[in-house]
Amino acid sequence: MPLSAVEKVQVVTDLGWPGLTVEPNSIHFVNWVNDRLSTITAPMETLLRQYIKRLQDMDAKLEKAVCRASVSSVDGVTFNKDEIHILRKERYRILKEVSQLLDIPIMGSGSMGNVCV
């Protein structure tokens, strides 16, 4: 079953691209990115969905870690002060695997540099 529109948007935004990258009627549309997401093989699709699930799990762990960030210990349990850094590093490693699988580069966090005339 091909990727849904929501899955495509999720993948491109996780890789740092605008969500409209896969919207054909948008000025942000990038044909080759959309083609790569539309023409993946069944084994690649299975693997990609596993990566998406792992990224969602990592995001949930990061959200919990951020909530714990101000606490150093509770009832004798000491929290790892580097937990957020370690989780972000692992999330980025998974994103690199997605990027390699699809041959779509990870974009920086800055603006795409669109110019309106």
Layout of helices and strands, plus pairs?
Elements: H1 5-14, H2 31-38, H3 42-68, E1 73-74, E2 77-78, H4 83-102
Antiparallel strand pairs: 1-2
Number of helices: 4
Largest sheet: 2 strands, antiparallel
- Rg calculated over all Cα atoms: 17 Å
Termini, distance in Å?
Answer: 41 Å
Class based on secondary structure composition and strand pairing: mainly alpha
Average predicted local confidence, pLDDT: 86
Overall outline:
elongated
Structural notes for this entry:
The chain is mainly α. The protein has two domains: 1-39, no CATH class; 41-71 and 78-102. The chain is built from four helices and two strands; from the N terminus they run αααββα. The chain has helices spanning 5-14, 31-38, 42-68, 83-102, and strands at residues 73-74, 77-78. It has a two-stranded antiparallel sheet. A hairpin with a 2-residue loop joins strand 1 and strand 2. Helix 3 (42-68) packs antiparallel against helix 4. The longest helix has 27 residues, at 42-68. Residues 110-117 have low confidence and may be disordered.
Features:
mainly alpha; elongated; single chain; 2 domains; 117 residues; 56% helix; 4 helices; two-stranded antiparallel ribbon
